[in-house]
Each structure stands twice: as structure tokens, then as C-alpha cells.
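Example with several molecule types.
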Amino acid sequence: MLKNSADYALRRRAEQVIPGGMWGHMDARKLPDGYPQFFSKAHGSRLWDADGNEYVDFMCAWGPMVLGHGNPAIEEAVRRQVAMGDCMNGPGEVMVELAELLTRTIPHADWVLFQKNGTDATTACVTIARAATGRSKILVAKGSYHGAAPWCTPVMNGVTEQDRANLVYFEYNDCESLRQARDRAGKDFAGILVTPIRHDMGREVELANPEFVRCARELCDTDQAPLIIDDVRAGFRLHLGGSWEPYGVRPDLSAWSKAIANGRALAAVTGREWLREAVRSIFVTGSFWYGAASMAAAVATIRTLRDTDGIGRMKTMGERLRSGLDALARKHGVALRQTGPAQMPLVLFEDDPDFEKGNLFCAIALRNGAYFHPRHNMFLSAAHSEDDIDHALEAADAGLRAVAEAAGV
Amino acid sequence: MLKNSADYALRRRAEQVIPGGMWGHMDARKLPDGYPQFFSKAHGSRLWDADGNEYVDFMCAWGPMVLGHGNPAIEEAVRRQVAMGDCMNGPGEVMVELAELLTRTIPHADWVLFQKNGTDATTACVTIARAATGRSKILVAKGSYHGAAPWCTPVMNGVTEQDRANLVYFEYNDCESLRQARDRAGKDFAGILVTPIRHDMGREVELANPEFVRCARELCDTDQAPLIIDDVRAGFRLHLGGSWEPYGVRPDLSAWSKAIANGRALAAVTGREWLREAVRSIFVTGSFWYGAASMAAAVATIRTLRDTDGIGRMKTMGERLRSGLDALARKHGVALRQTGPAQMPLVLFEDDPDFEKGNLFCAIALRNGAYFHPRHNMFLSAAHSEDDIDHALEAADAGLRAVAEAAGV
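Resulting C-alpha cells for the full complex:
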């Protein structure tokens, strides 16, 4: 970071008034040197840092911008709603429209409940499962991220033993481990909470294997305990009906957020009929949960994704990026491990335990105008064009050359 | 509710796709007959239901609309920021501006951390207190509302014993009870979480008494445990520097939300220097927490409140309402109990254990164009004018006449 940069100056100011200057998943100190912390502008598939440097954006605000920054159809829907009213003494008609649209779009969804954050949605799912079963233990995969409340945050500072007392852990994609966890929960088995793909930071993305998916469904069926899919990260990027639709396996509850409203703060829980009374019995709410503007954004986002084959376009562009990177890696004699659905790609390097190659690759690609991430899955949007991908591949070419040179290839 | 109304039709549709048709604090089934569930429009101090009926709004979306619906200065600030970018791969410069503004405005605030919901903020406060002290027990007042996560929601369905295992209860405004709670926490005393006024639903609003305030401060000082003010509901309506500033007693941590950004989803934790390292040690985050638009709204909201004496204007209008209601009550021979700060008034009736008088009063006032609440404190905004108050008093006149007639006065 150049000391005469606007980003550096903002970081200095931020350090005075925010502990550490930044926190959470967007803390740029976790990224290679040169990554900016502050952004001044975003449009479509591009964003600009505080110093005016332009990047093709492969994080999409870590997921939300599924149709690209400032998408005109979404902005227009929000403008129209805001001109009428946003935060009122109850919801607008748009809440019903959105709930109807979601129940039509998502096969398992007999009803919907709205929140603001992904953590709100996963927390509500767990609460509904406990209310429905009268039991407490929720099975979760080791290392899976389900939010940042005390019961699920990955960092234990400030978290009590009691906050985690009702979680039982299993290994993702391991049916036997899941069965053992279910046995450890005993009579107190209240449900399984699972991400639709394994997308833990810093390791290859694994698709769920069909045996594991069936196993989870069966264990839940046997004890009438909800199968909960945490579709916060993958939702609306893999399949509009839910990320396990291609398996033909449906959850009882799903948590959604990130991409649901193209960057407007919104989350949702969808679920099956048998859980309706349990939902009515719990109390969850929030000051801004009924705001009409983010719901108008969600209606427009889901319709646009559906009517323009947004997911198909993201996939095509993700595959163009992937095959382009593979070709470049061969050219430079560098071995890549590309995993994840093409819309949520992860690029790791062989023989790179400390992410040194990945960091170098990303730092050089960044300098050449592509905003990649060295350890976390990335996100395509429906705004990415062939030109964007080709521009990013030029930046990647420079990054891979640097990796090859550093390795003495 | 008339069966040919738009509101009725929306409720029927909502029942299909949302458990019970509605949930949370804005569920209109908790209000007297005739209260609408859905709203179509809001402007300044007025809002319109789905059938086009207009009301002077005394709930302000249950707090957020502190400058009135669609305030032009706030809307313009949001428009400008949205045109640049909202949800990006990091915050905008406006995050630093807002944090600087808050630390200048709030005397105890050496730093700021942002979230989306009030519950996020109170949860972060409790986590910071535990991280800072290495202890677990948080003292909270019986019946105080601190949010709707399992550890604090007022309804226990779906909540486990462990979720509440680290709370120790005291009676609000009772120093001896607070001391006893502190003793019960023993060596595990991690802090006190308290609302700045007692604003529990359905009972008179009580201001904190100075002895209680001092007592809380002293207990925290003795053990270096944070004193946490939950200023989510009262914040930015009583005193811009924090609701206990008039007592000369400052907290170590405060939670803010509702009025901070005039209806845009935002929350904040502010705190003292000695807690900075504890904040750095915990992990809290959310997909939309760094969005620039709601932060731009907050900068504009706080500046407008400060530069136009927004709090003073709300207080003046609240007092006009209160004295007007008192005069009308005398005229009709009805005994009212008016409590709370004038900006957050509560109107209860003497000898009304089941809120029958309050419900009748509100139902009739509603029909005459004033949206009051029979059991929860109400909210004034800086957009309320003398005309609004006088119009509302005419509606109240009709309501009080109905109460007098029903009581045979």
C-alpha cells in the first residue's frame, strides 16, 4: 500500500475510530499486500478503489451482487418503492408478492419468513427446528460457516461454552460421521444444518456427494427432525429452486440471503408445511425486517435471474474463466487446482500450503485489473461479459507468469 | 377489518405464504380491530394504509423514522451514495466519516463497530464484554427487551436452557436487586446490560432513577466489567450523546440502531478505549454490514438532528400532544396515565387492566386519522408539526369521548 494513496490515508483515519481500522470478512489485512480496503465506485462487473483503480470484480461484495453493481432494473424497482415508502408501521404489498414468488420458485417452500442477515436466517432455522421437535441438538459440519453469532462464529473469543452446547459435529460428505453425530445427539436430535456445498475457506470446494445428501435426508426423515440447508452463500447462484434440487433431495428448511436482493439487506427462511406451526410459535423480529425497498429489490432480482437465465450466463462466464486459467497455467507450467461450481470458483495452487503462490498470483492480477481472492471461493455475476473474462485472463496471465518465475519454472 | 378492503385481501394472500400471515412486533393482530396490516405510502409525519386511509404516524415504523418518512436530505444523501456504489468489496469512505461523526457526537465513544439490526448490536456488546473480562454472566433487567435472538427473545419456544444460562436477572430501578444479581454472578460477573429507560410493553414508562444509574456504574467499576446501555430504542431521540448523558454517567459500551439512519438498516456499537482490544479479538460480521448507502443515511440523519435541533423539536411536539391529551381527558372525565419522555410517549388509562379503554381509544382515534399504540411507547419525529398534533388531538377527542361514553361518564 503506497503511503501517499487515498486508501492508506483512510486506513490511518479508520484506525482511530474503529478497532483495528476494520473487522470481519472484508478486512483487507487478510489479503495480499496491495489489496485496497476502501472502494469509491461500482458499476456492473467493475469496481473502483478509493484511489480510482478499476477492477473486474470476482467477489461481487462476497456474493450479493448477483446481477452486477447498480443493475438498472433493480435500482428502478427500489426507486419506485422508496418513492412510496420503505420502513413503515407494517409491510407493503410487496412482502406478499415476494413471498408468493419465492414459494412458486422454490419447490420445498410452502411459506417464507424474512430477516436482514444470513445469521438471522440460520439462527431462525435452528430455533424453528427446536420449537418443532422439542429437542435441542443440531448437527453441523466441522469447519462450516453458518454466520457470526456466538452459537456459530468461527472465533471463540467472547463465546461461552453454553453457546455451543447444543451443536454436534460431523465431517462434511461423510455419511458414517453424520450417523455417528446423530447417535451422539441421542433423543435430543433436533435437526441437521448443512451447507449445500463444502465451501470452507482455504480448502478446495467440494460438491456434496449424493450418498451424503441421501444419508442426511434419511436421518432427518427417520426422526422427523428438519433437514436445514444453509443456502446463504450459494443460494440463487446454483439453482433458483435451492442448491440441492439437482439431487432431487429437498430440505425442510432453507436459509437464504446474500444474492436475494442484489445487495440490499435481506434474508429469508423457507420451509415446509409441517413446520408452519413451529414458526408461529417462536418470536423473531427486527426493526428493519419489514422494509419494502429491499423486498422490491428481491422481487426484481429473482424475476430477472429467472427471465434472463442469469444462472446460465454466470455459469458460462465462469467456465470461460476456468478454461482460460487452465490454458494459461499450462502455458506457464504452473499446476492449478480449480474447484467449485463455475459460478463460485476457487483457484488454489498445487504445493502451496501457505498460499504464497496464490497470494503472489492475486497481487499481480490485482495490479493488472482483476480482483480475485486467494483462499475464498469467488463469485461471478450475470453482469460479467466475455470482455470482462478476457480482460481478467490477461491480468491472470501476468499473475501466473510471476508465479512461474518465482518458482524458477 | 372490512372484508372488501385491500388490507383484508392482502392478509388472506399472506396467510397462504407466511405462517400466520405475519409475525414479529408489527403483527397487527396484536392491535385493536381496524388497525391495518399493510401500508402503501408514507411521507413526513403521515402514512397511508393499503386502502388509502391517511394517518398522522405516532409509531414512526416503531422508531426508525426520526426525521419523518422520505426526508429529502436523507434521501438525497442515499441517492448520491447509491449512484456511486453501495455493497462493494469493502466499505466506502463514508464508513470512516460516520465513525468519526459518532465518536465526536457521543462522549463515551472512542470507537465504533457497525451492524444491521439492534439484536446484532446488543449481541456484539455482550460478546465484547465477555471477551474483555474472560467472564460469562451478564446482568439484565426482568422484562427488558434486548432483541429477538435465542439469548434474549421474550418468547421461549425454540430456545434452549443453555441459551439463557449466562443471564442473571434484576429488577429495573432497584439498586439492591442489582447488587444481589451481581453477587449471584460471583466471580463470573461480565457486565450489566440495561435500557436507559424502562420501556417494557404494557406498563408505564419509568425513567431510570439517579441512584440506580450510579449503582450500576459503581458495580461495573468495582470489577472492571462493562456497563452496557441498550440505546437501540431511545438512542438519538433523548440525547445525541447517549440517553444517560443527562445523569453524567457514561457507559463502557452502547448499542444503537432504529433511529440511526432514518429507516435504513444500520446498527452500531460504541465503546471506550479499554475495550478496543476485546473488539479486535472477536469475530462478528454480515454480508451487508459494510454497505455504504445506509452509512450515508446515518451521516445525514445525525447531522440533521444536530443542526436543526431535531430532538428539541420532537420534545416540543410531544409536549403539545401530552398537554392536549390531558386537557381532553379532563374534558371527558377520563383518567389518563401519560408516561415516558415526551418524544417517546406512552398513554395508558387508569383502571384498565386489560387495555379495553386503551384499545377503544386507539381504534376510534385511528378511524379519525391518528395512528397511536395502546400498550407500547410511541415515537415522535422531527417532521411532526403543530398541525399534525392538532389533527391528532381531534382524533383523540373522538377516542376519549368513546371511552367516556363506554364507561358511562
